[in-house]
Amino acid sequence: MAEQIDFRGKNILAPMVRIGVLATRLLALKYGADIVYSEEIIDHRFVQCKRFVNERYGTIDYIQDEDSRPMFQTCEEERGKVVFQLGTADPDRALKAAKVVEQDVAAIDINMGCPQYYSTKGGMGAALLLKPDLIEAILRKLVTNLSIPVTCKIRVLPDLEETVKLVKMIESTGVAAIGVHGRVTSERSRHPVRLQYIKTLAESVKIPIIANGGSREHINCYDDIIKFRDVTGASSVMVARSAQDNASVFRKEGVLDVETVVKDYLQIAISLNNHYVNCKYCILQIMKGLQESEEGIIIRSSENLQDICKVLGMMDVYTEKIGRFENLDPPSAKQRKMEKKIDNFNLIELDFKFFKGDFWMKTGKTPKTLIYEWCRNNKKAPPIYNTTIRDTDRRFNSIVEVAGTKYRSTCWEKNKKMAEQGAAIVTLRSLSLYDGRKPANDDPTIKPTITPTGRLWATASKAE
After folding, report:
1. Using N-to-C axis directions, what is the helix angle for 160-172 and 195-204, rounded to 10°?
2. How many CA atoms lie within 13 Å of 128's alpha carbon, on the beta-carbon side?
3. Crossing angle for the helix pair 276-287 and 258-271, nearest 10 degrees?
4. pLDDT band at 67 (very low <50, low <70, confident <90, very high)
5. Residues 350, 336 contacting (CB under 8 angstroms)
6. Buried b / exposed e across 193-224, counting CB within 10 Å, b at 16+?
7. Of 49, 75, 114, 279, which one is the catalytic site residue?
């Protein structure tokens, strides 16, 4: 049996929505964090996930269906160090969700401290603090039926004696540790953290208490983490906002500058092919006031990971890690297309992800316009689009009918317009037509010349 995780004397990355994904967790580990928590993942969604080994990027992905982004990712580098935080208000469903991921994480943590409405509205997060019997039922269910440790993260109650009573009850369930945010549910970061509450709780139980809530006010570097542990008497310290600002807060040697941290983060994110929306969000959190710099403005307006890499001078890393897996030039439809039958039509599918920044969406003809003009010039009926929305993640996919054949991309997009453009691109590529992509040199003054048949024959000289 593998050695179980020890929660004593540890510096820990706290669970944070949108921040606590694999790329940030690996960055925190790189800088010296001992344990990293995932963002909160809701039980009723996670029970639908299946486990996939992603050999391309060396990750284990938990995905609801083959077309959606992973709900949770992990890898060998964080084995034995990652704690999976679960949002739940039901013992049976909590166990079912925990069993899905049990083999790949070091522990399961139950979120009992998040005060945000998206968590409390379902009776989860800090809403559980009002239901101690349910807390006990959930924790006992997990402790009894899992092979890995169980922890929970709470906020303190307004009354210290009631908080001590709660923590002792939690200890009796057999959990391995308790994370304590030293504020009550109604308080936010502008309110001072209740250091004495945490200290009293640490003195009241035998299991490790993990102190949380000291970011920015008390914690801005490694030495501050140690001081916070000493002043609270806690076994370990969990860092949230200060680590979100700069994950090198865990470095014994000192905090690094923003540019270095952003590039270190992006190096890891690229190696995992992390979704650009999440990359963009995390980078902007690190940049904070620098968002108004020239680089920050470009990153804020970026539409794909390539845009971010270009402004940070990291296209060589992008090309090495991701470019070799992607067809930056229009791929050969004959090599990649799959043909099926649907409603007595031929259906041609391509594995294609639409990035607006790669196409002349504002200054030229869009893929939809190009296929419409091809149909008109060749006396074909106009394209007919049929777009569906997936309930699990509210993403879109479109099938377009052109000249008796249907076409679709296997990728699901964030809105209807992008899904239809993706279907149009699959059509154009399958017919060996120009699809509206910008030239490889990305010179905005160069635009393609299209013949009446729609085929790409030449590139015009620079605009006058």
Report:
1. 40
2. 27
3. 170
4. low
5. yes
6. bbbebbbbbbeebebbbbbbbbbebbbbbbeb
7. 114
Taking CB atoms within 8 Å and a gap of at least 24, the contacts of 56-63 are 56/273, 56/325, 57/271, 57/272, 57/273, 59/22, 59/272, 60/104, 62/100, 62/101
Is residue 442's pLDDT more than 70?
no
The answer to whether the beta carbons of residues 192 and 231 sit under 8 Å apart is: no
Tell me the two tokens of residue 420: 């239809």
Task: Please determine, for residue 364, whether its predicted confidence score (pLDDT) is greater than 90.
Answer: no
200 to 82, 156, 321: CA distances (angstroms): 28, 11, 49
Nearest to 31 by CA among 359, 193, 254: 254
Report which of 148, 137, 198 is spatially closest to residue 176, judged by C-alpha positions: 148
The helix or strand, by DSSP H or E, that contains position 86, with its residue range, turns out to be strand 82-87
Residue 282 a catalytic site member:
no
406 bridge partner residues: 347, 401
Q: What confidence score (pLDDT) does residue 28 get?
A: 98
Of the candidates 282, 257, 355, 267, the residue with the CA atom closest to the CA atom of residue 312: 267
* pLDDT at position 455 over 80: no
β-strands 72-74, 82-87 pairing: unpaired
Cα 421 versus chain centre, distance: 25
Closest by Cα among 313, 307, 314, 244 to 277: 307
CA angle, 374 then 428 then 420, to 5°:
95
The predicted structure's pLDDT at residue 393: 63
Copy the structure tokens of residue 121.
């509205």
Q: How far apart are CA 421 and CA 413, in angstroms?
A: 10
Query: What is the number of helices (H) and of strands (E) in the chain?
Result: 17, 19
Q: Which residue has the tokens 């052109």?
A: 402
% of the chain surpassing 70 pLDDT: 88
Q: Nearest to residue 70, comparing CAs of 99, 101, 109?
A: 101
The secondary structure of residue 71, as a DSSP letter, is: S
pLDDT at 77 > cutoff 50: yes
User: Which tens digit of pLDDT belongs to each residue from 195-250?
Assistant: 999 999 999 999 999 999 999 999 999 999 999 999 999 999 999 999 999 999 99
Closest by CA position to 179, among listed 245, 240, 265: 240
The residue to which tokens 């807060």 are assigned = 249
pLDDT, one tens digit per residue, over 139-152 is 999 999 999 999 99
Closest by CA position to 362, among listed 460, 444, 442, 295? 444
